[in-house]
Amino acid sequence: MTKQLRAALAAVLILSTASMQAQTGTSERTATKRAVRKKAESPLERTLRELREQMQAQQAQIDELKRLLADRDAKLSTTSQDAQAATASANAAAARAQEALTAIQSNHEEMATLSSSVSDLKVANTGLAQTISDTKRDVTSAIESPTTIHYKGVTITPVAFFALESVWRSRAMASDVNTPFNSTPYMGSGMAHVSELNFSGRQSRLGALFEGNTGPFKLSGYVEADFLSAGATSNDNQSNSYTLRQRQIWGQAATQSGFAVTGGQMWSLVTETKTSTDNRTENLPMTIDAQYHVGFSWARQPAMRFQQRFGKFTAAASLEQAEYIYSASNAPSNFFIGAAGTGGGLYNLTANYSNNVAPDVVVKGTYDAKYGHFEAGGVGRWFRDRYYPAGTTSAGATNDTKTGGGFFANIRVPATKYLDVGVHMMTGTGVGRYGTSTLPDVTVHPDGTLATIKSQQGLISLEGHPLKKLDVFGYAGGEYAQRTTFANASGVLVGYAPVTGNNTGCNTEAVPSGSGNGLAGGAPYNPGPAANCLGATRAILQGTAGFTYRVYSNPRFGRLQYQMQYSYLTREAWTGVGGAPKATNNMVFTGMRYYIP
CA 571, CA 566: separation in Å to the nearest integer? Predict the structure, then answer.
């Protein structure tokens, strides 16, 4: 709008205002004036009228514009309110969306947890199914293939193997698969000139372990027997009916603190063990020979053993059955150390038994380390005889007791993964019976009192495991008995292996002897013994090599194994009149055994 038009409009507005104030407001008067104007209207009036009409039109437009503006403002207000409401709704929707998202996330986490739980449950169900299957299998296996027999609260584990074994010796000894090493014949014996081949199933073994666990302590009992004994009717002629022999039979009570007490017939505490001083872990040579090996110290006899573990260390003590092995030349007759067995006393009528004054006492300590097993111990022994100083009468008769004993040690270490090395030694006086050759314990003084004999025993062991099924072994051992003599009033040497002993016939073969009455030892079972041959043993040496091959081994069905052993044996005598005789023997053993699982 221009400035002129604005001025005109202002003037019209002023004039219109003044004209409107001059009117009286009646309709007739207005109509009269309109009629007068219509009749006569000047140009100025027309201009003013037109301007007024334009103003009215513009006013109407202004009013319309105001209305439109007001309407727009109203709409804008409504739109703002709607926008605010929409914003609020959007915020609410966003909040709800966030809540929904949170809920979805929570649901997702719950679903994930649930899914994980389901997966775990599936795994657990799978594991449970496997456990049930394994349990079923184990139960079935336990029923069909039990490892033990259950009787009330006691479990019984059978122990057995069944053997066929053989021995060939280049010099006959009339012996089964156990070798009496100290009886190897000198060349003066007819037996030294013939070999022998014997088959045997007598080392087959039967036994069982009985165990009951009371909680505070464990009770155990063990029995083991073979057939390496002979009764009055035993022979090899047709039915080899050898008697069942008691090897071990003992009972034990052990506490959880490592203390155990064992009583019965068992391996002597002198015997090397694999673990602690535990029964049934004896570390025996792997030989077929049931007498084991020269240099190995052992005994199986009634005893009472006490042991206590202190971690890897074990201390043990044992009271054991005593027995004397006696040997003497030119001995007086005014004493005795025992008697032959009494039938009513259930002792063997053909065996001698010493009158023991006290049990043998054995103490031992062991240490089990990662790098080996170590043992050291001692033996205390007491020897008693009754002697008669007057000789021909009992005047002054009295008992005399001598003390003996010795020290022993064992070391067993794994030199490599495939080889174990062992060293054993024992030395002392009066301990010969603990050697596998059973050299003498005691001899006698000229007055009839006893004298102990110093002896030594030693063994080196090599045991290899080159294959899972194969073991190889080698042993070298020796035993020694010291010459122990005393001169009597006449100057004659009395005791063990006097230098005046007659050895002149030890290497000259003797002819058969005997009455030929068909009894044991009669013709033609009467090879001539070496005549004029004291041959008191100084040392016995043995070297052995062999192997064990496990043909088949299964925890359900047991083990089948084959063994072979070669040994070379030497027996050396003390020098006497005629020199120092020597006896040798080559021995080959074979064995096939089936061990029950």
Answer: 17
Spatial distance between the Cα atoms of 207 and 223, rounded to a whole number of angstroms? 5
Residue in 417, 402, 441, 408 with CA at minimum distance from that of residue 268: 408
**Locate tokens 């240099």: which residue?**
295
pLDDT of residue 37: 46
Q: Where are the alpha helices (DSSP H) in 145-177?
A: none
Q: What element of type H or E holds 508?
A: none
Q: Is 183 exposed, middle or buried (0-12, 13-18, 19+ CB in 10 A)?
A: middle
Among 402, 423, 392, 390, CA closest to 354: 402
The pLDDT of residue 191: 96
Of 544, 15, 581, the closest CA to residue 285 belongs to 544
Please say whether the beta carbons of 34 and 27 come within 8 A.
no
The confidence score (pLDDT) of residue 4 equals 54
Phi, psi at 148, each rounded to 5°: -140, 160
Instruction: Please report, as a single letter, which amino acid is at residue 183.
Output: S
Contact 517, 559 (CB under 8 A): no
pLDDT of residue 27: 45
Low-confidence ranges of the chain (pLDDT < 50): 1, 12, 16-38
Residue 196's closest CA among 236, 225, 164? 236
3-state secondary structure of 423: strand
pLDDT at residue 25, as a whole number = 45
| Length of the chain, in residues | 597
pLDDT tens for 342-380 read 988 989 888 999 999 999 999 999 999 999 999 999 999
DSSP-assigned states of every residue in 528-587: PPPSS----EEEEEEEEEEEEEEEEEETTTEEEEEEEEEEEEEEEEPPBBTB--EEEEEE
* 324 vs 434: CA distance, rounded Å: 11
- Check residue 30 and give its pLDDT: 46
- In this structure, which amino acid lies at residue 154? V
3-state secondary structure of 468: coil
In 3-state terms, the chain is what percent helix, strand and coil (to 5)?
25, 40, 35
Residue 286: closest CA among 417, 422, 437: 422
- Residue 382 near residue 321, CB atoms below 8 Å: no
Give the Å distances, CA to CA, from 322 to 18, 67, 254, 433: 163, 139, 26, 10
